[in-house]
Write a structure and sequence with these properties.
Elements: H1 14-36, H2 40-59, H3 65-68, H4 81-97, E1 104-109, E2 112-118, H5 119-122, H6 132-145, E3 152-157, H7 171-188, E4 197-203, H8 214-220, E5 222-228, H9 230-238
Length: 240
């Protein structure tokens, strides 16, 4: 019986290890190259967003004026993080100095820093003309907002009690005209550039309290002045 010849050892197995090594080195250098080209602006915005998220979690949603402005939560404003802290401090000091903390709350929302005015300090019931006694306060707040580059949105809100008058056929119209009148005041007398402003009506459809009680309905009737955060600003610009 003929003996089988022993199989020759594969002398080219080292090529597999070598090719694996080359592949890993190539991946390593690709990763290093991509890391060296990180967009610094996007990185700063990401860091700011994370900082904002952590701040909101620490402070909680729907914070009162006294708590919101006193925490470390900072929304990533279009200028810098320190700018957001600065304007929160300025607005908080203004509200306290003018005894407005009971009628106006200051809090952080996902889209920006929000001043929420009870409607009864700005408007008579069912009316949209701004009461002259509070125009001065609005204009002084406008002067604070002017020192920052962020866009400003004025939002009108109502309760769910239907309205039908010779002037307003629904809560949509009432909330809309109220927001527009605040915008006109900021433009005409506050000299805030019109390109930085917008007016929005949400009517009765974004309540912050139950409409089943007079107290809840009173909270829902409000004007929100929102200084937009940079994250929301960049997203809105990108969608255009």
């Amino acid at each position: 019986m003929a003996k089988k010849k022993p199989k020759k050892e594969n002398s080219e197995r080292w090529l597999l290890t070598y090719s694996d090594l080359i592949t890993l080195l190539m991946i390593f250098f690709v990763v290093m190259y991509s890391m060296s080209n990180v967009d610094s602006k996007k990185y700063e915005e990401l860091a700011g967003s994370l900082n904002n998220s952590l701040g909101v979690l620490q402070g909680g949603a729907g914070m009162s004026n006294a708590n919101a402005a006193g925490t470390d939560s900072s929304i990533p404003f279009h200028q810098t993080i320190s700018a957001s802290q600065e304007i929160q401090t300025k607005l908080k000091d203004y509200l306290e100095t003018h005894d407005l903390t009971e009628q106006v709350s200051l809090h952080v929302e996902p889209h920006g820093l929000t001043l929420s005015f009870d409607d009864n300090i700005l408007f008579d019931s069912g009316k949209a003309d701004i009461q002259s006694a509070y125009k001065k306060n609005l204009l002084e707040i406008c002067d604070i907002l002017k020192t920052f580059t962020n866009d400003v949105v004025v939002e009108g809100h109502t309760d769910n009690l239907p309205i039908h008058t010779s002037q307003f056929s629904s809560n949509w119209e009432l909330a809309s005209i109220r927001a527009i009148n605040v915008v006109h005041l900021f433009i005409d007398e506050g000299k805030l550039p019109a390109s930085k402003l917008a007016a929005i009506s949400y009517g009765e459809y974004r309540p912050i309290a139950s409409n089943d009680t007079p107290e809840g309905r009173a909270k829902n009737r409000r004007i929100d002045i929102v200084l937009l955060s940079s994250t929301f600003y960049e997203e809105s610009q990108a969608s255009k």
